[in-house]
Backbone:
């Protein structure tokens, strides 16, 4: 407010822009939400402040700024529920904790039910969630009609609506604010955030990473955390191991801004389309993943067409809108659609990856867990079932259904 | 959009008409494989950023599986081969 009277001349950068030092106790590769949150919780929860976050691009330029801003915690298994609900609870207090308004808007997350099979599985999910202590409910057709008045409720619609699964605590967040909030808070606690700093190689001695070669010079380190989502296989290859990860392009798009006409977050399992309206008025839409591997951060017209035709099928009135922007991010898909957290085959390298299409909603939890791993050397209790070793021991946590879209 | 000419039926197909089948050349290990080898075979992938050797199926056409060398950033297609032909290109990280 004060700056409005001063021609906005007094704003200062939200975080410092230090140059890379020669040594850090912890180096975190990847300055997305997960990497920044890791740095923040390392400093706040564990008192480790000689930390660098190195980022190839710029803060908020990767998947943290490329998602559809949705948060929810409607996962099936107890270990997933604990993880994702921790994330949502931390988001609920994040504005206060970070002293940065992340604009959390718990407007309700709705998955439509189009047939009796989906109704059965929604009931199954709600029961599981109740057992896990996470709220969720099923609402009937009339209630869906009241909450989402523009939705095509016709009996003859291609995908008729019988009702919906609803998580009232689900909603949206201003995604850039999450990156900026964690970056500023971590920087204030002494963390160095170095942008435009790409990792070119890792130097190892006795199965430990001793230094990291970057585009801004080499840096030695005690331990290393990696939180690089779609590029996890690339860093893992430098470290000398492979991951059960494939990288795919996930696209989203927004319409021109209009007045508030669509209050809730709505997902249709029949088309894979999800749609919500931002506080600026744009309709944010996304749908399926490109099923072939890709590192190209750009979309394709066939996916735009698929998404838009499904949106118009669900909301005929949106056909009047024009698309304003369209973009893509590279997500790290794992066979069981659950994250990989904790130790790696390299002794002092800890990992946070595999969130696939749902990384944004999990940022506070991913950061908490990776910070714990890096500070103590042992996995966080909530992360134990999500170790890389689960593929060897065949204890997969299959959240394919809860991830919301087909993988 | 990815557009490939099937080496069997010679038709030009878009990604909508094709099925992606993951990395090519992953061989099932022998019965005597260790748990680590088996895990590696089932789950671990090279997932290269750069040239990728992969398999595609002409699903909406002749139904044959074939092999493609494609760049995963630019999507440039370098080679399209019948299933029994050998790649001339090397995959990144392999």
Residues:
């Amino acid at each position: 407010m004060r700056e409005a009277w001063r021609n906005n001349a007094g704003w200062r950068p939200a975080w410092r822009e230090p140059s890379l030092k020669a040594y850090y106790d912890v180096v975190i590769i990847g300055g997305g939400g997960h990497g920044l949150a890791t740095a923040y919780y390392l400093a706040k929860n564990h008192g480790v402040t000689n930390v660098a976050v190195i980022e190839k691009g710029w803060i908020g330029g990767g998947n943290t700024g490329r998602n559809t801003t949705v948060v929810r915690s409607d996962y099936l298994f107890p270990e997933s529920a604990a993880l994702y609900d921790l994330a949502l609870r931390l988001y609920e207090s994040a504005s206060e904790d970070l002293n940065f308004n992340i604009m959390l808007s718990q407007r309700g997350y709705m998955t439509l039910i189009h047939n009796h099979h989906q109704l059965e599985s929604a009931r199954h999910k709600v029961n599981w969630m109740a057992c896990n202590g996470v709220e969720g409910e099923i609402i009937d057709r009339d209630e869906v009609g009241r909450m989402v008045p523009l939705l095509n409720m016709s009996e003859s619609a291609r995908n008729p609506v019988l009702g919906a699964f609803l998580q009232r605590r689900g909603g949206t967040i201003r995604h850039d604010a999450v990156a900026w909030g964690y970056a500023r808070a971590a920087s204030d606690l002494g963390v160095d955030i170095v942008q435009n700093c790409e990792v070119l190689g890792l130097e190892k001695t006795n199965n430990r990473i001793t230094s990291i070669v970057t585009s801004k010079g080499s840096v030695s380190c005690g331990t290393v955390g990696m939180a690089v989502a779609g590029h996890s296989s690339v860093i893992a290859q430098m470290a000398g191991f492979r991951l059960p990860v494939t990288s795919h392009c996930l696209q989203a798009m927004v319409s021109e801004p209009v007045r508030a006409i669509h209050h809730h977050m709505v997902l249709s399992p029949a088309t894979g389309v999800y749609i919500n309206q931002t506080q600026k008025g744009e309709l944010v839409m996304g749908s399926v993943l490109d099923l072939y591997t890709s590192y190209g951060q750009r979309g394709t017209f066939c996916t735009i067409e698929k998404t838009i035709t499904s949106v118009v099928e669900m909301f005929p009135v949106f056909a009047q809108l024009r698309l304003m922007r369209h973009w893509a991010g590279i997500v790290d898909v794992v066979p069981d659609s659950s994250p990989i957290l904790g130790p790696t085959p390299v002794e002092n390298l800890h990992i946070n990856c595999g969130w696939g299409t749902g990384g944004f909603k999990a940022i506070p939890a991913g950061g908490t867990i990776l910070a714990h791993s890096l500070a103590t050397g042992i996995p966080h209790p909530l992360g134990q079932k999500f170790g890389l070793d689960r593929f060897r021991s065949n204890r997969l946590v299959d959240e394919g259904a809860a991830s919301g879209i087909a993988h | 959009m990815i557009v490939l000419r099937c080496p069997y039926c010679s038709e030009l197909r878009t990604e909508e008409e094709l099925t992606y089948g993951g990395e090519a050349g992953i061989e099932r290990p022998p019965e005597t494989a260790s748990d680590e080898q088996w895990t590696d075979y089932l789950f671990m992938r090279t997932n290269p950023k750069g040239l990728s050797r992969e398999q595609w199926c002409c699903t909406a056409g002749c139904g044959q599986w074939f092999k493609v060398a494609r760049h995963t950033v630019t999507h440039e297609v370098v080679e399209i081969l019948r299933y029994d032909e050998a790649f001339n290109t090397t995959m990144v990280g392999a």
